[in-house]
Amino acid sequence: MSKSTEPKGKGVKRRDFLKILGVSGAAVGAAGCSPESAGKLIPYLVSPDQTVPGVSTYYATTCRECAASCGVIAETRDGRTMKLEGNPDHPLNRGAICARGQSALQQLYNPDRLRAPMIKKGGAWQSASWDEALALVSQKLGEAKSRNAAGGAVFLNQHESGSFPAFADQWLAAFGMKPHLSVDFEADQAAMEANRRAYGVSWPRLDFSQARLVVSFGADFLEGWGASVPHQLDYADARTNFENAPRSVYIGPRRTLTGMNCDQWIPCKPGSELIVAQALAGKASVAQAASASGVGADVLGALARELAAAKPSLLLAGARTANALDLALAVADLNKTLGNVGKTVLPAEPLTAFEGIARYSELADAVERMRGGSVPVAFVRGTNPAYYLPASLKFADAFAKVPFKVAFATQPDETVEACDVVLPDLHSLESWGDAMPVKGTLALQQPAMDPVFGGTRGAGDVMLALAQKDPSAAAKFPQNSYREWVMARFPGGPAGFASGLAKGVMPGTLPVPAAPAPLAMTAPPVLESTAGDFYLITYPHALLGDGRGANKPWLQELPDPVAKIVWSSWVEMHPETATKMGIERGDIVEVKTAHGAIRAPAYLYLGVRPDTIAIPLGQGHRAAAPIPAWDPLHQDPVKNVQWGYGRYARGVGVNPLDLVPAAADAAGGFVWTVTKATVAKTGDRETIPSTEGSARQHGRGIAQAITITDLLSGKGNEVKEAPLPGDASHEYLPGLRAPVAADAQGDIGAPTAADSGTHLGMYDPKNPLGMARRRWAMTVDLARCTGCSACVTACYAENNIPTVGAAWQNATVYAVEKTGYNVVRGREMNWIRIERYFEGAPDAKFGEEWEGRVVPMMCQQCGNAPCEPVCPVFATYHSPDGLNVQVYNRCVGTRYCSNNCPYKVRYFNWFGYGEKDRRQYAFPEPLNWQLNPDVTVRGKGVMEKCTFCVQRIREAENRAKLEHRELIPDEFTTACAASCPSRAITFGDAADERWSVNKLIEDRRAYTVFKEINTYPAVVYLKKVNHPSPAAAGNA
Amino acid sequence: MATTAAPFPPAADLRPNVASADVHFPAIKTYEQVDNEVINTMRPTLGWFVLLGLAILCMLVGAATWTYQIYEGLGAAGYHPPVMWGVYIVSFVFWVGIGHAGTLISAILYLFRAGFRTSIYRVSEAMTVFAVMTAGLFPILHLGRPWKFFYLIPYPNWRLIWPNPKSPLVWDVFAILTYLTVSATFLFVGLIPDFAIMRDREKNPIRKQLFATLAMGWRNSDKEWRHFARAYLFLAAFATPLVLSVHSVVSFDFAMANMPGWHETIFPPYFVAGAIYSGLGMVFTIVIPMRKFFKLEHYITLNDLDAAAKMCLFVSMVVGLAYLTEFQMGWLAGTSFEQEYWWNRAFGQWWWAEWIILVCNCLLPLSLFSQKLRRNPSWLFTLSIFINIGMWFERFVIIVPTLSHEFEPWQWSTYAPTWVDYAILLGSFGWFFMWFLLFIKQMPVMAMSEFKELIPARMKHAAGEGGAH
C-alpha cells in the first residue's frame, strides 16, 4: 500500500521505531508482570463460572456432624468455604444450625487432618503413595478372599443416612464380606426399638405444638436425643403460642439442658423412670413409685392428674438405663392410651435419618469376633470405637488381633492409630452424597470446595478403585467415581441429582435398610447391687457428643450449656453431698468403680440428685506423648501427626467410659447408667476453666421471667415503672437515643420530634445533619432461647473470633501451661455469651424448686453508650445508624471502654491471637482458611466486641444500592440470629416499622437490661414464660 | 479533792511547735556553716554508689520486663477480665499521689508561711518531679499498643482526628504534663540562688560552667532578690491550684465512669487528700534516712518532723473521713449494685485489702496524737512505710474490687498480678530512686539561701565574713 510513499533514507523509520517501541514495551511489561515466584493469591488459576473474586457462592449440602442429616448452605468465597448456615428448604432444620454442625468447618480445616496415605511398618508410620497403599489393601483383600475368610471382615462406618451404607454393603458383598455396621454411639436404641414395635417406624415426628403437656423421661430432646434442631424449632414455636403452650416436665436424676428448659424437674432415682411411667399409666401405685424413685407421692400424684387432664400430651423416653427398652415401651404405650398418637406423635411422617444404625450389641459382638481371631481384615471409617467403647470391653486388645486394619479417616484418633493403613478421607464438605432425613425427602450432598489437602481421597472413590483391582468385583462397579455411582442410583439419575442441587433437597425416596433384630446380650448388672456410694451417670456431652467434637477448638471453647465449663471434664455433685464430704468446687475427686478410676474436678450442681454423680463424655482422649520438638504451629503431615485426637483434644479431661461395665439393654443399646461408684476427695485442687462468674443474678433483672397466668391475664401490663430521675421526658423507641449527642437529654433524641422545624429528630429524614434513618436493634426472646449456644459458635465463625483456651496459648515466660488457663483468667473472647442463672433459694435444699434461666448477652449497642465518652482516641464511637463502632486501627488499648461497660461485653486481645508464628496463634494453617474476609483479624492490644455483624449490614446496604432499591425489611440478619435453632433472636431496623423486630420490641414481655443506668440498649429482651405446675398454682 | 494541776514545765523543756527563727535551728550559726554542711552532703560515697547501682538494676529489670510485655502482649500481666486495670493503674495513681506532697509543702505551706517547710521542701519538690515522671510512665505502660500512645496527644494531622475531649484519660494527659512542667519550673526557680552558691564554690571548671549556666547569672543583688521573691511567690500561687486540680482530674478517671464504687462525687477531694497523705508518707520515708546519713539532724529538726507529723495526722483523719463517707454513700445509695459492691469490698472477696488500708491509713496514724511518737524518727519512718503500703492498697481497693464486682454478676471475677506486674512495679521504684539519688548528689538537698534567712540577725556576722548570700 505504501510502497512508494516511504522515503528512503538512513536511520530508523518512524514505523519501525513504533514497532520496536511496541515490542520492547510489551516485553518490559511482561517481564515486569511476572513475579519471581508465583504465589497463589486465590486458589483458582482459571476461575470457574459464576465465581467472582470477593463474592460468595453458596452450595446447599448436608451436615454429617450427627446422624440427623440437617441441610446446610456452605458459603464459599474464592474457593474456600468460610461459613455454614442452615438450609431454609430442609424439612429438619429449616434454616437453623446447631453449634456442632457449624463446627464441621473446623474439621474440614483441622490442622491435624491426615494429609497423605500412611502405612505402618514395624510399628512405625511411614508415608506411602496412594498406589502403594491401594496395592497393599488390595493384596490383603485378595489374601482374605483366597483363604475364604473374607466373610469375617468387619467394616465400621460412622452412621450416615443416604446411599453410602448401601454402597458399602454392595462393595463388601462384592468381596464376599458381610454388611457393614453403621455406628452412632449416641443413638437411643431403646427409643428406636420401642418406636418400631409401637409405630412401625424408628423415629416418628414429634409435634410439640399440639401438646398441652410434655413429659420427658430422660429424653434430652433439645441436646442430642434424636434430631435436636427440629425439636428446638418446634418446641420454641409451641412454647410461644402462649394460649396453647405445653407445660413441660423432666423426669430424671440429672437436670440436663432439656431439664432446665422444662418447667418442672422431678429428680427420680436412676432406673426408676420406668416405675414412674407405670404409675402414670396406672399400672403401679403412686406410693410404690414414690418410694422407688425417691420422689414425693404428692408430686407424682399431681403429675398423674395433670397428665390425665392435659390432652393431648407428649411423652418421651430417653433414659439410658438397663430397663431403657421397658421404659420406652411403657411410654409408647402411654402415648397410645392417652390418644397422643396421630396428634403429637406422628408415625406417618417419620424421620428416616436414623434408619440402619447398628446396635451397640452388634458392635460388641464384632469386638468379640475380633478377639476370637475370626476377623481377617477390619475397616473403620470416621468412627472411633477405641475411644468411646468402654474400657472394660477391651476393644484395643481385640482390635490388635485383627491382622490387617484399614482406616478411612480425616483425623488421627485412637482407632486410626491402631490400624495398619491410613487412607485419608475427604470431609463431607468436600464430597458427594445424599441422605434421606425424613420420609419422602432427599437431601443432597455436594462438595462446597476442592479438597483442602491434595493427598486426600474420598472413601467411596478409594473403594471403587479397590474394586477395580479385583477381577470379580470390578464388573459390579463400572463407575469411575463415587459421585457417578450416587447419581446413577439417584431417582432420575444424574439429571435428577443436578436438578436438586440448587435447593439441596427434593422429594423422593431411597431404600432404607431394615433393622435387624436385637442380639441377645448378657443382662447388665442390677444397678442397686453394684458397689459404691453414688449412682454414676455418664452422658454424651451436649457439644462434644461421643467425643467427636473434642478436636475442634470452637466446641472446646464453647461453654457447656449447663455447667458452663470449657476445655475440661468435671464431676457433677449436689452441693449438699459435697458439703457433707467437705468437697468444694474445683476439688479433685477420685471416682472409682469395679472397672476403673478417674480423677476430675468436682462441680457442684443443684441439678443432680444427692445420691448421684454425673460425668460427661467427650474428653480424655488418649494423650499420646508429644512428639519431640512438637510445635503446635508447624507440623509435618506424616512424621508429626499428633496421635490421640489431634492437638486440641490432647491432655484435656478424662473419659468416664473407663469406669463403666460394657452392658447392653434389651434393645441392644449401650447402658450409660449402669453402675454405682465411690467418690473420694484427693486433696488436690484446680480452678475449673469456666465462664461463669456468679451463678445468681442477685435480683438484678438480667434474665426476667413471667408466669403464663400473669402473662395471659395481662398482669404484667399494669405495672408502669416510675419515671427515673434524670430520665428524658418522652418515651423513646427502645434503644433509640441521640446517636451522636449521646448525652443529650433533650428532644433531639426523639425519633421524629419536630420542634418548630429547628429540632428535627436525629432519625428524621429531613434532619439537616444528615443523620441516618436507621437504628439497628435486636430482640432476644427468652421464652424461645434454650441456651444451646449455637449463636456463640456462629459468632466465632462469622467474626474470626480466636479461641484462647489451648494449653500453649498463654504467655511464654513463667506461664502456666494448662489447658483452658486463659479462660480461668477470664480471657475468653465470646462476643456473645450465654449467661446461665439459677433462680430459687440461694442455698436450695434438694427437693426445693429452682429454675435455670439463660440469657444471651452481647454488645447492647447502647444509644447512650458508657463506652463511648471514655475512649480517649475515638476508637469507639457512635455510627449514624445507631451502632457502637469499634475502630481497631485507632484503638490504643486503654481498656477504659470495657471498665465502663455495665454489660461487660467487650473483649481484649491480650496476646497476638491473630499473628502467625506466635504460640498464641488461634488459626494455625489451614484453620485460617475459614476466616471471614469481610472481618478483620484483630491484632494484639486492641479491644473488640459484637458489631451487630456490621459487615452483613454493609453488604446488604451495598447490594441494595447496586440494585437501586431500598433495603427490604428482614432482608438479612446477623450470624447469631441466622443460626439460632429456636429462632429467639430477631434483628432489624427499629426506626423502620416494617421490620419485624419492631413488633417484638413492642411486645408486653419486652424489657432492657439495667434500664436504670439509662444506657438505652438496642437489644431488647422478651421475658421468659414459666408454666408453674397446676398443683403449685392451686396451692398458692 | 486532792488533785492539783501539774506545774507548768520550765521554759527550757518547752518544745516549740511553731518554727520561730531563733529557737528553731539553734545549731546553725553562720552562713558559712550552712554552705559547708549542705555542700558536704554532695560528696559521693560508697553507700550512695551501691544504692544507685541497686536502683538502676531495678529499673533495668522493669525495662526488660516491659520489653517482654510489649513483645508478648498485655496478657503477660495478671489481668483477669473484666478487671481490665490492675497494678499499673494502681501504681499510676500511687505515684501521682506521691507527687502531691512536694508542691503542697513548697507552695501551699510557703503561702501559709509555715516555717517547718524550709528544711524539707527541696527534697519533697524533687520527689514530686520524679514521682510525676514515674507516674507518667504507667499510662503508657498499661496500653495494649504502647507504640500508639501519641494518639492521645492532640497533634496536627491530615486526617483531622483529635483526641476525645470527653475522655478523662485525655484530661489526664494534660493534667499530668501541666503538673510536671509547673513543678519542674518551681523546683528550678527555687534552686537558682543555690546554683549561684555552687557556682562560686565549685573548682571543677566543667561543673562550674554548668552551675553558672543554671544560675542564670545570679549576682545576689537586691533587685534580683526582689524579682526572685515575686517570681517565687507567683509560682507558688500558680502551683497551688494544681495541687488540687491534678489529682481531681486523676479521680475523674473513676468518678466519671458509672461503675459502683467509682461513680462518686466525693472522689476529687478524697483523691486530693489521699494524694497529700501518701506524699507526706513518702516525704518521711525519704527525709528521715537522709537526715541521718547526711547528718542534717540540726537542719531537719525534730520540731520540723513534729509539725509535719501533725499535718500527716490531720490528713489521715481527712482520709479516714472520706473512707467513712464512701461507706455511707454505698449504704445510702439505695441500689443493690452499690451495696453489694461495698459489702464485697469490706467483708467479702477483698476484705484483706480493705482492712490493710483501714489499719495503715486510719488506725496506725492515730499514734501521732502522742507527741513522743511524733518526735521519734524511727517510729515516723516505720509509720511512713505503712502509709506507703496503705496508700498503694487504697488505690488497689478503689480499682480492683469495683471492676471485679459490678453490674453483671455473670462477669464477676478476681485478680492476681503476675511476676510481670511486680517486676514493672519494682522497675518504677528503681526509676524513681535512680533520679532521686542522682539529684541528691548533684544539687543541694536543702535551700541554703532560705536557711540563711532564718539565721537570727545577730548571728549573721558572727563569723566576720559570712557567706556572700
Task: Describe the SSE topology.
The complex is a heterodimer of chains A (1036) and B (469).
Chain A: H1 14-33, E1 56-62, E2 71-77, E3 80-86, H2 99-102, H3 104-108, E4 118-121, E5 124-127, H4 130-146, E6 154-158, H5 164-174, E7 181-183, H6 189-199, E8 203-206, E9 213-217, H7 228-239, E10 247-251, H8 257-261, E11 264-266, H9 273-280, H10 286-293, H11 297-309, E12 313-317, H12 324-337, E13 345-351, H13 360-372, E14 377-381, H14 385-388, H15 395-400, E15 404-409, H16 414-417, E16 421-424, E17 433-435, E18 441-445, H17 459-469, H18 471-474, H19 482-489, H20 493-501, E19 505-507, E20 534-539, H21 553-557, E21 571-573, H22 575-581, E22 587-593, E23 596-604, E24 612-616, E25 675-685, E26 705-707, H23 708-713, H24 715-718, E27 754-755, E28 759-760, E29 776-781, H25 790-799, H26 821-824, E30 833-839, E31 851-857, H27 867-870, E32 876-878, E33 884-886, H28 896-899, E34 906-908, E35 943-945, H29 950-962, H30 975-979, E36 985-989, H31 996-1001, E37 1006-1007, E38 1019-1022, E39 1024-1026, H32 1030-1035
Parallel strand pairs in A: 6-7, 6-14, 9-10, 9-12, 10-11, 14-15, 15-16, 20-24, 21-23, 26-39, 29-38
Antiparallel strand pairs in A: 1-2, 2-3, 4-5, 4-16, 8-13, 17-18, 18-19, 20-25, 22-23, 22-25, 27-28, 29-36, 30-31, 32-33, 34-35, 37-38
Chain B: H1 21-24, H2 31-40, H3 46-72, H4 87-111, H5 121-141, H6 168-201, H7 205-215, H8 222-255, H9 267-293, H10 302-332, H11 336-347, H12 351-363, H13 371-374, H14 377-404, H15 419-442, H16 448-454, H17 457-460
Helix pairs in contact in B: 3-15, 4-5, 4-8, 4-9, 4-14, 5-6, 5-9, 5-15, 6-7, 6-8, 8-9, 9-10, 9-14, 10-11, 11-12, 12-14
